[in-house]
Amino acid sequence: MKDKLMTAAEAARMVEDGMHLGVGAGMAMNPMPVIREILRNGIRGLTLTPVLTGGYVTDLLIGAGAVETIQFPQIVLDEFGLAPHFRKWAEAGRLKLLETM
Q1: Rounded CA gap, 86 and 91, in Å?
Q2: What is the C-alpha to C-alpha distance for residues 21 and 33, in angstroms, rounded to an integer?
Q3: In the prediction, which pLDDT does 30 show?
Q4: Are 77 and 59 in contact (CB under 8 A)?
Q5: Element (H or E) spanning 3, and its range?
Q6: What is the DSSP annotation of 10-51?
Q7: Beta-bridge partner residues of 93
Q8: Angle 56-63/84-91 helices, nearest 10 degrees?
Q9: Which of 9, 17, 32, 15 lies closest to 67, judged by CA?
Q10: Which residues touch 93 (CB under 8 Å, ≥6 apart)?
Q11: Residues in a beta bridge with 98
Q12: How far, rounded to the nearest angstrom, does the alpha carbon of residue 97 sit from its chain's CA centroid?
């Protein structure tokens, strides 16, 4: 049986420019070590589909300029309010938005 365990850096190296990624919802259950490694690798042009709602990870990737397209029902930081990077980039027309219900 093939061992599927790997480090966050190894997992992040599987992500390439322009890929379509699914990420965790809201403020919990997000793979922060992998996301930090993706950002360190300078990945760009991602399409993100947050599972249920986008939260901190989604907003972080947008703010770092890694996201080109996002498919979402909503992007919020739960009790902390609106996602500032998402709002800024969406209002500036810097994201392709694919709204889902």
Answers
A1: 8
A2: 15
A3: 80
A4: yes
A5: none
A6: HHHTT--TT-EEEE--TTSS--HHHHHHHHHTT--SEEEEES
A7: none
A8: 50
A9: 17
A10: none
A11: 71
A12: 13
Q: Identify residue 84 by its one-letter amino acid code.
A: P
**Residue 81 buriedness (CB in 10 A; 0-12 / 13-18 / 19+):** exposed
The Cα-based distances of 57 to 12, 29, 49, 50, 64 in angstroms read: 14, 10, 11, 9, 11
| Residue 40: Cβ-neighbour burial (10 angstroms; 0-12, 13-18, 19+) | exposed
In whole angstroms, how large is the CA radius of gyration of the chain? Answer: 13
40-54 pLDDT, tens per residue? 999 999 999 988 778
Nearest C-alpha neighbor of 100 from the set 67, 74, 77: 74
Ranges of residues in the chain whose predicted pLDDT is under 70: 101
